[in-house]
Amino acid sequence: xxxxxxxxxxxxxxxxxxxxxxxxxxxxxxxxxxxxxxxxxxxxxxxxxxxxxxxxxxxxxxxxxxxxxxxxxxxxxxxxxxxxxxxxxxxxxxxxxxxxxxxxxxxxxxxxxxxxxxxxxxxxxxxxxxxxxxxxxxxxxxxxxxxxxxxxxxxxxxxxxxxxxxxxxxxxxxxxxxxxxxxxxxxxxxxxxxxxxxxxxxxxxxxxxxxxxxxxxxxxxxxxxxxxxxxxxxxxxxxxxxxxxxxxxxxxxxxxxxxx
Length: 260
Known about the structure:
By secondary structure, the chain is α+β, with helices and mostly antiparallel strands. The protein is 48% helix and 12% strand. The chain has nine helices and seven strands; from the N terminus they run E-E-H-H-E-E-E-H-H-E-E-H-H-H-H-H.
């Protein structure tokens, strides 16, 4: 949980780390990912309190050293960090943008993720709600989990495209070919193991995509993203889409929250 605060007239964020309580649900998701060989979808351990604070502080230091736009740590407590404000919510910016503006924002985000990957970085959950925009740079937030605890770097980078692809797919339901083109143009330089893993996993999700076309708005977004991103990897580019194991009658993909 994070709340805005003011420090000497400057906006900052106070982030509290509650105790982890998702062992059963995460165990189920881990079983599904292993059973169907979807390694990039394995959930990292979800720790709480001081452990989560330590993981986030370490990850922020690592990413900052790699030249990634992440917030500075201004202060800390036993189970809290005070973080720099790095811009408006990327999700809000996408919702407020017209089609052309949305394309510019998504292209900027894709470029930022691709550049970070070339430097050996990974994020874990670059969903639009965990990104910021200051008018010039895309920023990244929320690092209380570390995917490298359960997967290798190539899989972690594939997971990044998985999360990002799902997060922006709903803005391209009527223009999936545009999203595919944006991904294909920016991902050409991706590492081949990442491309191969992404293509393999999205290929295994094709049957799920057909089912989700009738699963409500969230399901359709997921289905379209699987198809788009698999097509991008078919031509040698990387992208990936998220798997949900708890689609219910209301069509909501609630288990996606387990990744965050």
